[in-house]
Amino acid sequence: MPFVWSLGSILGPLIGGSLADPCKNYPGIFAQRTLFEAYPFLLPNIVCAMILVVGILIGIFFLEETHQEKRYRRDIGLEAGRKILSLFDRQQGLGPYDKLQDANFEENRLLVEDDAPPGYRTIEGSPRYPSSRSLSPAAPPYTRTVLAARSQKRGVPPSVQTAFTRSVVVHIIGYGILA
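Given the sequence above, the corresponding structure tokens read:
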């Protein structure tokens, strides 16, 4: 989040300043006595709104749900995103490239099936990729301890004092000042 905030703080004024007053700055593209002359900051706001809409659409169509209880529900936006991507899928009728694609798929499958080191296995999966197999007795003891602690705390929501630590409060105040 801080990286995106910093990048937006640099690129936002750059884009806004370069698109402001387009009739004066780009007279060959934007004619005089138009909407852009009456409202010189309309163009940067339109571009900003378009970037926002594209970000929202990407979130709706391509991001998977990560909430523990909601991740396995049907996601109509994700299904629509897959249909949109299938329109651009060029795998049908590639001819001589079919064997190359099969070889790449086989190579990727072999890479994905390799086991990760025991200390780096995930204990939670995503809807697309299931979680790793149950931990063996040879798994590190701290991993078993974390699993036991998480299974005991699942039904108990955190208190306000637990959720709003000093670090969280400082970040909220900092973002509030910047906004």
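Residues 132-136 have pLDDT under 50 and may be disordered. Try to locate this feature in the token string yourself.
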